[in-house]
Amino acid sequence: MGAVPDDQASRDFLAGIHVGDLCSGTVAEITRSHGVAVTLDGFPARPLGIVSQANVSWLWNDATALEAGRRISAEVTAVDPDEGRVRLAMTATENPELWAFLASRRRGEILSGTVAAIERFGVFVSLDDGPDHPVFPGVGFITVAELSWRHVEAMSDVVQVGQHISCEFLQFDDWNGEARLSLKAMQPDPFAAFVEGLAVGQRLQGQVTKLVPFGAFVRVADSVEGLVHLRELAPAPVETPEDVLQVGDEVTVVVTEIDRQRRRLALSRRQAS
Question: Most exposed residue of 11, 120, 170, 179, measured as fewest CB within 10 angstroms of its CB?
Fold first, then answer.
């Protein structure tokens, strides 16, 4: 599928194709590793189009269900003249209303909808202003990490089926045809608020929440935890956190580093001794 460097004909052909265009062609080859190679109308010399496995169909999602010689229509998602390749999505022509809706969303946009289903991997949301999904309970989807700033033990503690919610749009997941959403983005970040007046060297009280081979996590405020590295657990070196701490212990720590961008707080129990 790679282009010959001096293949000016293919470069000229690709120069006339843009993201969002609809292209037609003939299936030339199907492979499990690369997907569907397509000979585009207007350039019969070799296949320039490629449809990945995920972009064949949201309904059956299997490129092997196609056959060589079949005519297809697909939307252009990327053009790479150097590689001599046009990336295509048949999903766009299979569900044009849904694709157009998702492609027109912008990061940070607020979308509202009703919780349609709660699964172990996240929450489906039926959007107020969006089309139905051909497979899933809703076009909107919230991963567990985007439900709350707090640690989520059970998603039903955060949302309930039938609940109407507003979320921030994160991205168009063209693998599943979903609008990835964030519910926690609608709430203030407790970490940012907590560290606003915090300084390195400050002493804090906290509770040990988790022991790991490299240290211990300590909750110093609601939904705010910091890491006490193994070397900072005690005045004398220890081999494991369990040598000096247990989950639930109340401890005094000193702030040694504040990383606002990565939302990380480094703490020391040794310096508080």
Answer: 120
The band of 135, judged by pLDDT with boundaries at 50, 70 and 90, is confident
Whether the CB-CB separation of 41 and 25 falls below 8 Å is answered with yes
Distance set, CA 240 to CA 30, 102, 210, 230 (Å):
53, 49, 13, 7
Q: Where are the alpha helices (DSSP H) in 155-273?
A: 190-195
Distance CA 70, CA 132 (A): 28
Terminal-to-terminal C-alpha distance of the chain: 64
CB 232 within 8 Å of CB 256:
yes
In tens, the pLDDT along 34-91 reads 789 999 999 998 999 999 877 887 765 555 567 888 888 888 989 988 888 999 988 8
* Neighbour count for residue 163 (Cβ, 10 Å): 12
CA dist 255 and 218 (Å) reads 11
Q: What is the C-alpha to C-alpha distance for residues 253 and 25, in angstroms, rounded to an integer?
A: 65
Element (H, E) at 266: strand 264-268
- What contacts 139, CB < 8 A, 6 or more positions away? 98, 101, 102, 125, 126, 127, 130, 131, 132, 133, 177, 178, 179
Joined tokens for residue 214: 């490299």
pTM of the model: 0.67
Tokens found for residue 113: 């909808």
User: Which domains occur in the chain, in start order?
Assistant: 8-94 (2.40.50.140), 104-186 (2.40.50.140), 190-268 (2.40.50.140)
